[in-house]
Design goal:
By secondary structure, the chain is of the alpha+beta class. It contains eleven helices and ten strands. The protein has two domains: 5-79, Arc Repressor Mutant, subunit A (Orthogonal Bundle); 125-258, Endonuclease, Chain A (2-Layer Sandwich).
């Protein structure tokens, strides 16, 4: 059986299989039903390994063992395989989320919190700064900053970013509203887009003719981005925890906000 190496590589990655599992599954799909010996010949996988690989694929739902002797295996429809993998992924994700949520109730978590406080409290604020890479990490850090806000949050970004990340910002805006935190949102972009955002999120964002992306919390911390429209894994943010520095930025922002 001649199979393009690119297909083998892609299927291996998509279905999280090793190279032998990928070759055996493709061989089985090409025959529909086959014995271990036939699969070994078709796939090029050593016969001694083919038995183990077929058993593994059977356990994962990629194949079904046919009753009778010699033992043969039946290929499972790829659509069925995908649906099963989707269900398993969702189930495992739910289990992991529950485990992480329950973790906060354990004594081990309390010890982690204590270790963090012990280590962070003596550190000078001027030393609390760093680079944060990747959009997921940037927004996770932003969420943490906003969740700990006590008085005010300032958001300066583009209308398109708010729209593209509507679920994230909807949650942020909702939490700030519940906590009665002062929220100032300055957006670049088309006026009509900003009006839609104000109506959708029940906020009062103002238009600003500055292409900038930064978030300030309580005039003590700031997270600002170094690019406007980066790729998912190329976003880079700089976080600074310094009242002296952030107050300077706040002063400039207030001037623009007042205009």
């Amino acid at each position: 059986m001649i199979v393009k190496q690119e297909l083998v590589k892609q299927i291996k990655e998509y279905f999280n299989l090793n190279i032998y599992e990928t070759k055996v599954w493709l061989a089985l799909l090409s025959r529909g039903i086959a014995s271990a010996g036939e699969i070994a010949e078709l796939s090029g996988v050593p016969r001694s390994r083919t038995y183990d690989v077929l058993e593994s694929l059977e356990k994962e739902g990629f194949a079904i063992a046919k009753l009778g002797k010699p033992v043969k295996y039946i290929a499972v429809n790829p659509t069925t395989v995908i649906e099963k993998l989707k269900s398993n992924t969702v189930r495992k994700a739910d289990e992991n989320v529950k485990m992480l949520a329950d973790l906060k109730e354990t004594k081990e978590y309390l010890e982690l919190e204590q270790l963090y406080k012990t280590g962070i409290e003596p550190v000078k604020h001027s030393n609390l700064s760093g680079a944060i890479k990747g959009k997921a990490n940037v927004f996770n850090h932003l969420k943490d900053l906003v969740d700990n806000a006590k008085r005010e949050v300032v958001i300066c970004t583009s209308a398109s970013e708010i729209s593209d990340k509507s679920r994230i910002f909807s949650s942020l805006f909702s939490n700030l509203n519940k906590k009665k935190i002062v929220l100032k949102v300055a957006l670049s972009g088309e006026e009509q887009s900003i009006k839609k955002i104000n109506g959708k999120f029940k906020i009062n964002a103002q238009m600003i003719n500055v292409n900038s992306r930064f978030f300030m919390v309580d005039r003590e911390q700031i997270l600002f981005m170094l690019s406007q429209n980066p790729k998912e894994d190329e976003d880079l943010g700089v976080w600074i925890n310094s009242g002296f520095f952030v107050n300077s930025i706040s002063y400039l922002f207030d001037k623009a906000w007042g205009k």
